[in-house]
Design goal:
This protein has 327 residues and is an alpha/beta fold. The chain is built from 16 helices and 12 strands. A 5-stranded mixed β-sheet has the order 10-9-8-11-12, with helices on both faces. The chain has a 3-stranded parallel β-sheet with strand order 3-6-7. α6 packs antiparallel against α7 and α7 packs parallel to α16. The longest helix is centred in the middle third of the chain and has 22 residues. The termini are far apart.
Length: 327
């Protein structure tokens, strides 16, 4: 019979997944060591080395997989090829936006890791088992991602492995910085079939500008006044979903480098490819196109698993390699 914490048992009884006899299987954490973990909602003390983990955040799954931590439950589809082994070995737990609460309760996890797309479910998931929101967001993207890596290493009893991954990442970061230094301005765009959005330094992909000291190729917009709530809302929306732009915008920005993310490819849709979308007279007239300075990133890694240590390390290597051969 499965072991239950009191909170897990209450949820299991409510869902009809355990009978009264299960009360004899309650375990407590009073004698277990705890580890302080900084989450998106503040510091939490968690029992060390949880044995059964449900992960509802792809960045977390990426980093835990890199640490070789077994994952008991994952969303039914991850879209990230390098996590296929973890996907095959884990039980399906619904989707990021709609977790299967009954399946999660039935698994009786010691810990649930949420974040990003599943962060709105943290309160409901906490009724089943201890749940942490490990969302990675904001201008300090790299620092926060590395903080998550260290926390997972400490929590799972694998600090040395976490330190090795951080060292390898920082080496890639320095190599990428050296590659982009003095090479001009870049514009990050994401295509979705025929649609194009751009992502600046304050956006979800803006860490590439910030961490690499990579200048932006942008068209300056009028600054909003402090009372312009509509403009403030628009800015926040652009940070999350990007700012919809025209091909004329790209032509006017005239970037030295185009860094491209293909959303349709990332989520397995058979829409018009990014290369076809951008192949028009306005874009081909830019310095980036004329010099062959276009870098197509692994879209699933950065769009789906962004913030995971494997995702970020691979993205930096793609940037380094792209700048090394460009021009």
């Amino acid at each position: 019979m499965a072991k239950w914490t009191r909170l897990q048992l209450a949820a299991a009884l409510m869902l009809g997944l355990a009978g009264p006899a299960a009360a004899d299987q309650i375990i407590t954490d009073t004698d277990r060591a705890t580890v302080p973990v900084m989450t998106a909602l503040g510091m939490r003390e968690l029992p060390a080395q949880p044995q059964k983990i449900v992960v509802l955040d792809i960045a977390a799954a990426d980093t835990l997989a890199a640490l070789e931590v077994p994952i008991a439950g994952l969303p039914s589809r991850l879209y990230v090829d390098y996590l296929n082994k973890q996907q095959a070995e884990a039980a399906p737990m619904g989707t990021l936006f709609e977790p299967d609460f009954e399946a999660i309760a039935g698994l009786a996890p010691d810990l649930i890791v949420a974040g990003g797309r599943s962060s709105r479910q943290v309160e409901a998931l906490s009724e089943i088992a201890p749940t942490i929101d490990m969302t990675i967001w904001g201008a300090s993207h790299v620092d926060l991602a590395l903080s998550r890596l260290r926390s997972y290493g400490a929590l799972m009893g694998r600090p040395a492995a976490a330190a090795a991954l951080e060292t390898a990442f920082l080496a890639k970061l320095e190599a990428a910085r050296a590659a982009v230094d003095g090479r001009g301005r870049a514009l990050i765009v994401m295509t979705n079939g025929p649609k194009v959005t751009t992502y600046g330094a304050q956006s979800r992909f803006g860490w590439l500008h910030d961490a690499l000291n990579l200048p932006e190729a942008v068209i300056k917009q009028p600054e909003a006044t402090s009372g312009d709530e509509a403009q403030t809302a628009k800015t926040a929306e652009a940070a999350t979903h990007g700012e919809a732009i025209s091909f004329e915008y790209i032509a006017q920005a005239n970037p030295d480098w185009l860094i491209v993310i293909d959303r349709a490819s990332a989520i397995g849709q058979d829409n018009q490819a990014a290369a076809a979308t951008l192949d028009n007279a306005l874009v081909t007239g830019t310095e980036a196109w004329k010099k062959g300075q276009i870098i197509y990133l692994d879209s699933a890694a950065i769009y789906i698993a962004g913030g995971g240590i494997q995702s970020m390390t691979a993205t930096l290597e793609q940037i380094r390699a792209g700048f090394a051969v460009g021009g």
